[in-house]
Amino acid sequence: MKQTNNYLKVMKDMFTVQMMWAFGVMGVMLIIGIVRLVLQFQENGQDNFYNSFFVVATFFFFVIGIMATYFLPHYVGHGVTRKDYYKGASLALIGMAITLPFIVWGISVLTEFIVENVTSFSFKEPNMDVSTEDSNFIGDIVEFLIVTPFVEPESNWVLAIGIFSLKILTYYLAGWLISAAFYKFSVIAGLGFIAMSIVLLTVENVLLRSILSLPIPNRFAFLEMPEGIAIAALLLIPLGMFCLIRVMTKRVSVKM
């Protein structure tokens, strides 16, 4: 393969591997959903597949984002430059962020159609609200990062898919940013990047809630801003994370 095409090979490899991981998680979730459906056959109110995976995606993409840095030694050991690794990994992430929400939505529509036509079971509406009252600061942060803004595809599929894609992008980048910092710097610096990622994800959550006119906890209300500025800032957050990752991986010493 030509040197100039190495990043395409990285993109294909990482996209394939990480999509297989995602399909594995989706398969487990489908099995769990079927078991719950059988055990609670007479009870309605289970989340549909789209809603369930939307919540799980927070943890899943953060974790595989952390793992992204550890593809670097493998590729450098096979003659791939750091730049090509970065380009390929970034394109793989963008590909996942675009395609996975559609796949999850398709599976959700299919499973709902089958279940609701074969049984009398009905799915419940998701509850993605957060408390606006000030309580425990750490608890508020954790809840706020887990319960991210959500839109039902049936109400506005373009907005719903866009929000899901943004969530995949930012949580993956947060994990990638943290692992790149630990890989390049000391533990102390890595802890600093954990704090930075929490701040960036919190700000992104507030901005998105502000744009969608969703409740915002009182302690974060000072981050609200006009819609136009909020949209621009919302797009700058993942862009800034991409740039930071590039800076850290550009000349990093690779541990073989």
From TrEMBL:
The chain crosses the membrane at residues 21-41, 53-73, 85-107, 157-178, 185-208, 228-248. Keywords: Membrane, Transmembrane, Transmembrane helix. This is Uncharacterized protein.
